[in-house]
Sequence to fold (88 residues):
Amino acid sequence: MKNNKDKDISLVSYNKNKGKSHAVAEGLKTVTTEYVFLFDADLTNIKINEVTSLIESLYNNPEIDMGILRRIHAKRYIKLLYRELILS
Fold:
């Protein structure tokens, strides 16, 4: 794990690429907070109101464990799809 100036953010990196699932699993081992956001590097042009909407949806619906923001029809924006919130 690399040190950084922001104590709320940890950067976990490896010399050899072991794939996304390994990176996510290793990153989750370092989590000490109640909530976790995983952002892919290609998640561009995301707007704060989209993230805020997702957070509010999760907060107001405790039965929901995860929300997904995804690109629709390869357009250059991200849309929150309430139908795609994964329920547990």
